[in-house]
Design goal:
This protein has 272 residues and is α/β, with parallel strands linked by helices. It folds into two domains: 118 residues, Periplasmic binding protein-like II (D-Maltodextrin-Binding Protein, domain 2, 3-Layer(aba) Sandwich); 118 residues, 3-Layer(aba) Sandwich (D-Maltodextrin-Binding Protein, domain 2), CATH 3.40.190. It is built from eleven helices and ten strands. Strands 1, 2, 3, 4, 5, 6, 7, 8, 9 and 10 form a ten-stranded mixed sheet that branches. Strand 5, helix 7 and strand 6 form a beta-alpha-beta unit. The longest helix has 30 residues. It is elongated and about 60 Å long. The protein starts with a helix and ends with a strand.
Length: 272
């Protein structure tokens, strides 16, 4: 009887202590930095840094920002190496979500892509003749035709890296029913698409936000505004970790303060 009562007392004490322990654990978790992945284009455009600063200021939670390709970040999210990720690769995101490996997917922004190319040469500005075209697929078709008709005069550089912008570029080629190929279609060196395009005077598809911060002569924006050139940016959380700041971040970025940060950033628009 005495042993039974002692066990009951121990169990009751443990039950009373559990909520306090859980609260302490949650406080300790919030004190740990949020591991946030962000597609490299979101970093290069300044959006990821602006979100990192504003979220930290509003909540007091430190953010450890990890740049990378959307495909790589989603793999890290699946393994639980990130608490949350900002990516722009919808097909890969949906696949991960359908497999139950990530959750709480929310659309936070639309990134506008622009087709840039040579436009300052006096003799041959825009040799493909695509400036101010409104149909991206038609512009790519005309670029391909001009490249084949004038070997060596036109080059299109692709990121070819699995980034969100690269995946969107591939979708536009499919819309144009074209399988781009060398020699006029080339893969840029790692991490240097826009810089390499400027050096070569080549055509490229880049995010408007990246162009706004790093673009310029001898290139210019030639094609923009096609709805198919909008790439949705989503935030997702990992199922393998449950950092309370992950949920806090998804709520904040889709709330008034987070949306205000997105609205101020060039090259991005708020989702409807």
């Amino acid at each position: 009887m005495l042993l039974h009562r002692r066990r009951l007392l121990i169990a009751s004490a443990a039950a009373l202590a559990a909520p306090a322990a859980l609260r302490a654990q949650q406080r300790a978790s919030l004190a740990d930095p949020l591991r946030l992945g962000a597609d490299q284009a979101l970093v290069d455009s300044g959006l990821a840094g602006a979100l990192q600063t504003a979220f930290g200021r509003d909540t007091g939670v430190a953010v450890k920002l990890q740049p990378g390709l959307s495909s790589t970040l989603l793999e890290a999210l699946e393994r639980g190496e990130l608490d949350a990720a900002l990516t722009n690769a919808p097909e890969l995101e949906l696949k991960l979500e359908s497999q139950g490996l990530a959750h709480d997917r929310r659309r936070v922004a639309d990134a506008a892509l622009v087709l840039v190319g040579p436009a300052t040469k006096k003799k041959t500005p825009d040799p493909a003749g695509i400036a101010k075209m409104s149909d991206a697929a038609a512009a790519l078709t005309q670029l391909r035709d001009a490249a084949l008709a004038n070997p060596g005069a036109i080059t299109f550089l692709s990121a070819g890296d699995g980034s969100g912008a690269h995946l969107a570029e591939q979708a536009l080629w499919r819309a144009a029913k074209i399988a781009p190929a060398a020699p006029w279609y080339q893969k840029a060196a790692a991490g240097g698409l826009l810089a390499q395009a400027r050096a070569q005077g080549a055509y490229a598809l880049v995010e408007h936000g990246v162009w706004a911060d790093h673009g310029g002569a001898p290139l210019a924006m030639l094609v923009q505004g096609d709805p198919r050139m909008l790439v949705p940016v989503h935030v997702m959380r990992s199922f393998r970790v449950n950092h309370p700041a992950g949920k806090l971040f998804t709520q904040w970025i889709t709330g008034p303060k987070g949306r205000a940060v997105v609205a101020r950033q060039r090259g991005y628009r708020l989702p409807a």
